[in-house]
Amino acid sequence: MEQGYRRSAGSARGEARRQALLESVTEDLAEHGLVDFSLRRAARAAGTTHKVLLYYFDGVDDLLVQAVDRLRARRIDNSMAAAALQAGQGTLAARIEALWPVLVDPRSGHRVLEQSTGLAMYDPARYSKFGREATQQYLPPLLALCPPEWSERRRTEVAELILATLRGLLLNRVIGADPASVEAGFAALLRALEREEAAT
């Protein structure tokens, strides 16, 4: 059983309450980021007390991990939906180009997700899930965007290239890199993907 579910698992009403609290905290994170995140701030955002949050979650780290997971899943779903619009007619590069606006949309919580990667590097003992689980969540959808006729190895290599490049570009945006240089890097990724697909 996952952390945070133990106290409400026996009650549909309790689980609904837990989900509502988590959604409120997730929205606060998307808007304000990780700086100064605490159980008390989360409680204010959810319109409750920190004691209520401790009833439904196993502490601030558990709450933070679940909120970040929710933001990441939302971002993946939205970006893959955008990419799917190109599935029948577009190249791999066109599908990646279609998901880029979703990844950089402030409403996607991108700043929080890039900040969480920083936490994984700063304190891996507490936050390694932000790095490892992010990769586990992102890779399968990216693999699905690759041409099905490619070998599994080739699809994996290209999906990992896409993920690493997108992560780097998104991180550069968060730390204040010149937007034009970020867009130039993304354009270079698209050209690399076009060459890769042309080599089929």
Q: What is the H/E order?
A: HHHHHHHHH
* Mean pLDDT over all positions: 87
CATH fold group: Tetracycline Repressor, domain 2
- What is the top-level CATH class? Mainly Alpha
Please give the largest β-sheet.
none
List low-confidence stretches.
1-5
- Computed structural class: mainly alpha
Give the N-to-C terminal Cα separation: 44 Å
| Tally of separate helices | 9
What does this protein look like?
- It comes from Dactylosporangium cerinum.
- InterPro entries: Homeodomain-like_sf, HTH_TetR.
- Keywords: DNA-binding.
- This is TetR/AcrR family transcriptional regulator.
- This protein has 9 helices and no strands.
- It has helices spanning about 10-30, 40-45, 50-55, 60-85, 90-105, 110-120, 125-145, 150-175, 180-200.
- It is mostly helical and about 200 residues long.
- The protein has a single domain, classed as Tetracycline Repressor, domain 2, CATH 1.10.357.10.
- Helix 7 (about 125-145) packs across helix 8.
- Helix content is about 75%, strand content about 0%.
Present the secondary structure layout:
Layout: H1 12-32, H2 39-46, H3 50-56, H4 60-84, H5 92-104, H6 110-122, H7 124-145, H8 152-174, H9 179-198
Helix pairs in contact: 1-2, 1-4, 4-5, 4-6, 4-7, 5-9, 6-7, 6-8, 7-8, 8-9
Keywords:
elongated; 200 residues; Tetracycline Repressor, domain 2; mainly alpha
At a glance:
Helices cover 76% and strands 0% of the residues.
